[in-house]
Amino acid sequence: MRISVPCILIKVPQAIGSLNFVVFSAHQNINLTAGWQGLADYKVGYVAGWKIIEQHMEGFKYSYPVCNAKTLFAMLQAKRFDLVIYDEHRGLEILKKLNIMKISPKKTALSSQKMYLFVHKKHKQLISELSISIKNVTAKINTEQVVQAQ
């Protein structure tokens, strides 16, 4: 899926990370084999402004954008939603922080997206340096993860 960006912004080619958009729910029987369309009959919550989610929610009868993640998970816990869509790692952190035990992410990701920085065109001379710095930082993080896993 392609998201349009105003032409005053230039994408830094090195990804800064990736997000796995997953379903969080207390229900165990949610079938994700149909992907996004399989969610059409559920009351689905998500954070407004996440374009990939908004584009997939178009036309859904029961899709509800909220202003932030804390509200999102509080409404899920209060059973105002059947499920929510959020980034897997951030969602797990929020569940832990809010001490919510009965909600969990589903194993199948609806979408995985690489994330990029964008700079204003007047700063395009920084792109090469930013790319190198991002590559070095992500390499260091990956190395540390390998060392910790051993």
Defining traits:
elongated; alpha/beta; about 150 residues; two-stranded antiparallel sheet; single chain; D-Maltodextrin-Binding Protein, domain 2; 8 strands; 4 helices; 6-stranded mixed β-sheet
Explain this structure.
This protein is α/β, with parallel strands linked by helices. It has a domain at 17-114: Periplasmic binding protein-like II (D-Maltodextrin-Binding Protein, domain 2, 3-Layer(aba) Sandwich). Helix content is 33%, strand content 23%. The protein is built from four helices and eight strands; from the N terminus they run βββαβαβαβββα. The chain has helices at 51-57, 69-77, 88-97, 127-149; strands spanning 9-11, 17-25, 44-47, 63-66, 83-87, 104-105, 111-115, 118-120. The strands form two sheets. Strands 2, 3, 4, 5, 6 and 7 form a six-stranded mixed beta sheet that branches. The chain is elongated. The model has no long low-confidence stretch (mean pLDDT 88).
